[in-house]
């Protein structure tokens, strides 16, 4: 684990510095997912380019090598809690709260609201799950302006892909026939990190900015319950009098908190390494077709290259390990496949889904790399799984997806099902080649040393293993119930 370097809020711009025994090297990565100028501009608007100064023993590929950034902000005088609110539940009884913090309007307002209504210190926590450098830019200054006592940022990208995305991929988990669970998988890894940070900083509560109408409040809080039931949970949207954006802006002005945004996107978006979701505006009417300029990760299939592109995925025990012969870390693999898939318009999903709280909602998702990986793993299973195993796996995958969507990642049932999925895909090792062309994926090759396909058996030519004459007796026995039923009807 890299040692941590605290830095003062007076430093500008923010530097992500990590210290280890080896010499420093400069690691820069581009988040642009398409060479097409128009798409590239949109992706750059979303993600930007990140450049990080790192000192380490090597690349981080697992959850135990998470990079952590801490900003210790100036101490603030303890706020006084009003008598009108001091006797409401936990108000006045909490000392320090870890807040899931994005730096947007809502979370910027939540910081002073917590201090005013609960009289506690607020530690802002931000997780990097691949949402883009633009989302992380300037967080230190925003947290300071809002009144936070500390900012903690953790790079969870490799952990997110390796320990959350890949198990869902191996299980074949898809919610309601379409949704590849991009937001659902991200919430438990963030909430788990919040529990860890709460222990590190000595907090007695955690808080989030989820509304009372959505799924995310459940996902966060079930993770808190599962990992540390002693932590108190504060959900301002279920308590405060703020009813919308204008109220939040007025509250921010009243408490001298700079409004972090002046222009509101017409869409509500959530992004990470796996996907980008779009909700709101014209999408709230399922009859409306999405606008072409809404998409940011994928080019319109009509404008995709006129020449198809082949991509080869190597898989070991249900988990992808190589792209076109190159071994990549989980996060870097997904970045590369997002680039390739986005260029060909792969992974656009438009669906109406059933939220956990009961209402239906319409969302549009872009999951280019994830769509490629799902196609590859499922195709390889056609070689390595027998009929009964495949049917049982597919039926359990529905329940697995439901548990993940509902925020029950740390539920013993999901963990037990994951053990089954790991065992059943032990022989799902091989390679699949896919052809990408204008939004479509075609399988062109699949190979596995554990393949159950036997050409000598499947061939129309006669062989020693399968005697075609045996089929007559099989059919008579297999069809016996139908013959008996027919005989009853004719008597």
TrEMBL record:
A GO molecular function for this record? ATP binding
GO terms classed as biological process: argininosuccinate metabolic process; L-arginine biosynthetic process; urea cycle
Chain ranges of the Arginosuccinate synthase-like N-terminal domain: 96-258
Q: Which domain of life is it from?
A: Eukaryota
Q: Does the keyword Phosphoprotein apply?
A: no
Annotated Arginosuccinate synthase C-terminal domain residues: 267-484
Its pathway, per UniProt, is: Amino-acid biosynthesis; L-arginine biosynthesis; L-arginine from L-ornithine and carbamoyl phosphate: step 2/3
Query: What's its EC?
Result: 6.3.4.5
Q: Which Pfam families match?
A: Arginosuc_syn_C, Arginosuc_synth
Q: Name one GO cellular component term.
A: cytoplasm
Q: Which keywords does the record carry?
A: Amino-acid biosynthesis, Arginine biosynthesis, ATP-binding, Ligase, Nucleotide-binding
According to its UniProt record, this protein's enzyme class is: ligase
Q: How does it assemble?
A: Homotetramer.
Which HAMAP family does the UniProt entry name for this protein? Arg_succ_synth_type1 (MF_00005)
Q: What is this protein called?
A: argininosuccinate synthase
């Amino acid at each position: 684990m890299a040692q941590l370097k605290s830095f003062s809020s007076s430093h500008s711009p923010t530097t992500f510095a990590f210290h280890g025994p080896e010499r420093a090297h400069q690691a820069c990565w581009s988040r642009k997912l398409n060479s097409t100028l128009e798409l590239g501009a949109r992706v750059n608007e979303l993600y930007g380019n990140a450049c990080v100064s790192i000192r380490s023993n090597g690349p981080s590929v697992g959850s135990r090598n998470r990079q952590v950034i801490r900003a210790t902000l100036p101490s603030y005088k303890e706020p006084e809690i009003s008598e009108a609110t001091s006797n409401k539940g936990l108000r006045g009884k909490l000392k320090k709260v870890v807040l899931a913090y994005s730096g947007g309007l809502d979370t910027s307002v939540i910081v002073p609201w917590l201090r005013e209504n609960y009289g506690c210190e607020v530690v802002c926590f931000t997780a990097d799950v691949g949402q883009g450098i633009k989302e992380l830019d300037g967080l230190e200054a925003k947290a300071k302006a809002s009144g936070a006592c500390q900012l903690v940022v953790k790079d969870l990208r490799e952990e997110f892909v390796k320990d959350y995305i890949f198990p869902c991929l191996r299980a074949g988990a898809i919610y309601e026939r379409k949704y590849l669970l991009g937001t659902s998988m991200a919430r438990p890894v963030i909430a788990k990190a919040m529990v860890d940070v709460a222990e590190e900083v000595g907090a007695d509560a955690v808080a989030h900015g989820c509304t009372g109408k959505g799924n995310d409040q459940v996902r966060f809080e079930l993770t808190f319950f599962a990992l540390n039931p002693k932590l108190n949970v504060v959900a301002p949207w279920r308590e405060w009098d703020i009813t919308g954006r204008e109220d939040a802006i007025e509250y921010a002005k009243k408490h001298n908190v700079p409004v972090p945004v002046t222009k509101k996107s017409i869409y509500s978006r959530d992004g990470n390494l796996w996907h980008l979701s779009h909700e709101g505006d014209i999408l709230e009417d399922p009859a409306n077709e999405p606008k072409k300029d809404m998409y940011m990760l994928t080019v319109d299939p009509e404008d995709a290259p006129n020449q198809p592109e082949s991509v080869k995925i190597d898989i070991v025990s249900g988990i992808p390990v190589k792209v076109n012969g190159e071994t990549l870390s989980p996060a870097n693999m997904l970045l590369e496949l997002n680039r390739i898939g986005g260029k060909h318009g792969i992974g656009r999903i438009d669906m109406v889904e059933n939220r956990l709280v009961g209402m239906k909602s319409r969302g549009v998702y872009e999951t280019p790399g994830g769509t490629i990986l799902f196609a590859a793993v499922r195709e390889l299973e056609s070689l390595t799984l027998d009929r009964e195993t495949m049917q049982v796996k597919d039926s359990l995958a529905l329940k697995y997806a439901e548990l993940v969507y509902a925020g029950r990642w740390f539920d013993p049932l999901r963990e037990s099902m994951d053990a089954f999925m790991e065992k059943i895909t032990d022989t799902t090792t091989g390679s699949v080649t896919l052809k990408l062309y204008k939004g479509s994926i075609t399988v062109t090759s699949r190979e596995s040393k554990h393949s159950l396909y036997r050409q000598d058996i499947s061939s129309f030519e006669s062989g020693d293993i399968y005697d075609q004459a045996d089929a007559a007796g099989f059919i008579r026995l297999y069809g016996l119930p139908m013959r008996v039923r027919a005989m009853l009807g004719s008597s």
